[in-house]
Amino acid sequence: DAPVLLFYRFRNLGREAVLIADITTSCDCAQPEWPRDPVLPGDTGTVMVRFDPKGRKGPLAKNLTLYTPDKLPI
């Protein structure tokens, strides 16, 4: 059971820079990495999650929660 890497690419479609202050996961088996610098309008960023399936069987669903210091428009 080798670790799995997942990549989530996003684009900042807003008018202000976006800073990801923190990311939490629903399991310590998933370790996120993200850009520490603000993502400028029009730029892209990538969140990488390293998932270790060791000792886990069957389908799994895990959650990531991203936190920003600013309220973002939906």
Tell me what the structure shows.
This protein starts with a strand and ends in a 7-residue tail after the last strand. The protein is built from no helices and five strands. The model has no long low-confidence stretch (mean pLDDT 88). The radius of gyration is 14 Å and the shape is elongated. Helices cover 0% and strands 38% of the residues. The strands form two sheets. Strands 1-4-3 form a three-stranded antiparallel β-sheet, with no helix packed on it. The chain has a two-stranded antiparallel sheet with strand order 2-5. By secondary structure, it is mainly β.
What keywords describe this structure?
74 residues, mainly beta, two-stranded antiparallel sheet
- Please state roughly what percent of the residues sit in beta strands, choosing from under 5%, 5-15%, 15-25%, 25-35%, 35-45% or over 45%: 35-45%
The tally of beta strands, per DSSP, is 5
| Strand order of the biggest β-sheet | 1-4-3
Tertiary shape: elongated
What low-confidence regions span 5 or more consecutive residues with pLDDT below 50? none
Classify the helix fraction into a percent range.
Answer: under 10%
Provide mean pLDDT, rounded: 88
> How many distinct helices?
0
The run of helices and strands is: EEEEE
Structural class: mainly beta
Radius of gyration based on Cα positions: 14 Å
Largest sheet: 3 strands, antiparallel
Distance N to C terminus = 38 Å
